[in-house]
């Protein structure tokens, strides 16, 4: 699948923040559920050069954010349009984001954090080569949740 990455526009940020709503346990990932994430996504100065919209032949299907932690490590965050999840395209989508991060930042490692209950995403991350590094508790979205930090070692 061919994906196109574009620096996120304000219209795209607002669409993702206000129109993308996940069902069931995945509602945890609705932007409105986390005030801090929502504010960052909607503030163009905070998004800066870190947030990218991802397109395929059908249109906007997801986003990635990239934070260069140091010369060796880039941290990523991502989301797929709710209608695109659970269709078997996750590995291709994440692989495209990894390739973009490598071409952009040239890291030795890429890290991400995922809620431990999100087995569907964890399965995708393991499939593309991430490894679990550590587990921790974090206060977010009105509660305390277990998260997993995962590492991808760039080749």
UniProtKB/TrEMBL annotation:
Domain N-acetyltransferase: residue ranges: 3-152
Name of the molecule in the record: GNAT family N-acetyltransferase
SUPFAM superfamilies assigned to the protein according to its UniProt record, in alphabetical order: Acyl-CoA N-acyltransferases (Nat)
A Pfam entry, by short name: Acetyltransf_3
Organism domain of life: Bacteria
Annotated organism of origin: Sporolactobacillus mangiferae
InterPro entries, A to Z: Acyl_CoA_acyltransferase, GNAT_dom
């Amino acid at each position: 699948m061919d994906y196109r990455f574009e620096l996120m526009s304000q219209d795209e940020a607002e669409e993702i923040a206000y129109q993308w709503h996940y069902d069931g346990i995945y509602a945890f990932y609705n932007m409105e559920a986390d005030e801090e994430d929502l504010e960052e996504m909607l503030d163009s100065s905070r998004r800066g050069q870190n947030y990218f919209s991802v397109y395929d032949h059908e249109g906007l299907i997801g986003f990635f954010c990239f934070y260069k932690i140091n010369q060796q490590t880039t941290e990523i965050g991502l989301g797929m349009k709710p209608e695109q999840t659970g269709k078997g395209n996750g590995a291709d989508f994440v692989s495209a984001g990894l390739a973009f991060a490598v071409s952009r930042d040239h890291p030795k490692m890429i890290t991400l954090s995922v809620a431990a209950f999100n087995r569907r995403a964890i399965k995708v991350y393991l499939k593309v080569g991430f490894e679990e590094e550590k587990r921790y508790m974090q206060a977010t979205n009105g509660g305390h949740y277990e998260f997993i930090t995962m590492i991808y070692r760039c080749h």
